[in-house]
Amino acid sequence: MEKNRSKNSLTNSFIWSLAEKAGRYGITLLTSIVLARILGPEEFGVTAIVTVFITLANVFVQNGFGFAIIQKKEATDKEFTFVLLFNVVVSIGIYLFIFIIAPFAEGYYEMDGLATIIRVMSLSVIVAAVGNIQQAYVSRRLEFKKLFISTFSAVMISGIVGVVMALIGCGVWSLVVQHLLYSVVSTIALAVSSDMKMERGVSFSECKDTLSLGWKFLLTSLIMTIGSEIRTLVIGKLYSPTDLAYVNKGQRLANAPMTVVQSSITAVM
What mean pLDDT comes out for the span 33-43? Predict the structure, then answer.
């Protein structure tokens, strides 16, 4: 009986996880098609370069200690509180670093206004630091339905706002706001729906095991991310933003089906 309940729980979790990933990719694809009819490929190429910086930064706040606390046999609210606060501090430091190097990136790629776009879009790193631990909390409890609701709400609201801004002539900033708004809405939705509570009296000694495991996840994810994203930076420098947009979107569309299934299974298991 207990075994059947466990199987049903895993099956339901996988279905909700698959629905969350597939829904996000599907709606994002439709939104991208609409935006592509309004905006030019150059705008997508510019944001593709910025996204690389954000993806690398998010490794430090999403792919390390969040994974570690999910893998622990037991995790207290104090540990979740500590990791959340730790992530926020790290994300602020990373954002300040990106803020400083943004003008150098603009000069390297010779794109006017790139520094401002990088600085604004990178604010999502701080938001993601909070949202990641909330995701870890509900994932550990196999509450993937809550992830589905938060993701669906975020992708719908951010997509609608992005299309409206594109229609009124905001150009690349419609993509910037869409990206940032997705992080904000999904984080707020999870904060409302999850039962995670902030605890007082958190100490470093209680969380040493989580940090010890987290840096190993972090290093592995960093190596994999650099390997997968370095091509975007090279193409963005050697070719035009338009060329980069075609390559970037083509790659994402080709990999979408496998990414949806693989990430759904990984999240549940």
Answer: 83
- Residue 187: enclosing H or E segment and its boundaries? helix 172-193
Q: Cα 196 from chain centroid?
A: 20
Q: How far apart are CA 11 and CA 19, in angstroms?
A: 12
Contact yes or no for 210/65 (Cβ under 8 A)? yes
Question: Helix, strand, or coil here: 202?
Answer: coil
Query: Which long-range contacts (C-beta less than 8 Å, at least 24 apart) are formed by 30-37?
Result: 30/159, 31/155, 31/159, 31/162, 31/163, 31/178, 32/249, 34/163, 35/162, 35/163, 35/166, 35/174, 35/175, 36/249
Reduce the DSSP state of residue 133 to 3 states and report it.
helix
Beta carbons of 193 and 150 less than 8 angstroms apart: yes
- Residue pair 268/17 in contact (Cβ under 8 Å)? The answer is yes
What sections of 110-143 are H helices per DSSP? 114-121, 123-140
- Is residue 98 pLDDT above 50, yes or no? yes
| Amino acid in position 186 | S
203 backbone φψ class: left, alpha, beta (φ>0; ψ -120 to 50): beta
CB 14 within 8 A of CB 265: yes
Whole-number percent of the chain with pLDDT over 90: 15
CA dist 128 and 94 (Å) reads 12
The C-alpha torsion from 231 through 237 and 240 to 243, rounded to 10°, is -10
Q: What is the CA radius of gyration of the chain?
A: 19
Q: Taking a C-beta distance cutoff of 8 angstroms, is the pair 153, 186 a contact?
A: yes
Amino acid type, 104: F
Locus of tokens 């629905």: 19
Poorest-pLDDT segment among 103-107, 108-112, 169-173, 229-233: 229-233
